[in-house]
Amino acid sequence: MLKYKTQGTCSREIIFDIEDNTIKSAEFVGGCPGNLIGISSLVKDMDIHEAITRLEGITCGNKTTSCPDQLSNALKEYLNASFEIA
């Protein structure tokens, strides 16, 4: 399990698990529960690169980022091997 501290969103962190470049789970701490459970369900078993492509750059209201965008950042950090193990 890996942890990513989010920035600029209602959620505070993302706890996720990757196996063979596939997202096995993603859990958001804080934020809008229904939407974030939905995002977690949609990315389950998705290739990391596909998830990054789909989620990167999504904004929330007048913010410059969003929870999906933060997940794409977490996945990019994972690929660059700069993450915290939970």
- Pattern of helices and strands: EEEHHHE
Instruction: Tell the overall outline.
Output: globular
Radius of gyration: 11 Å
Number of helices: 3
Query: Approximately how much helix is present in the residues?
Result: 25-40%
- Largest pleated sheet: 4 strands, antiparallel
How big a fraction of the residues is strand?
Answer: 25-35%
Kindly state the number of beta strands: 4
What is the average of the pLDDT values? 94
Structural class: alpha+beta
Termini separation (Å)? Answer: 5 Å
Question: Going across the major beta sheet, what is the strand order?
Answer: 3-2-1-4
Flag low-confidence runs.
Answer: none
Q: In total, how many domains does the architecture comprise?
A: 1
Domain TSCPD: 3-79
Organism: Acetoanaerobium sticklandii (strain ATCC 12662 / DSM 519 / JCM 1433 / CCUG 9281 / NCIMB 10654 / HF)
GO molecular function: nucleotide binding; ribonucleoside-diphosphate reductase activity, thioredoxin disulfide as acceptor
Family: Belongs to the ribonucleoside diphosphate reductase class-2 family.
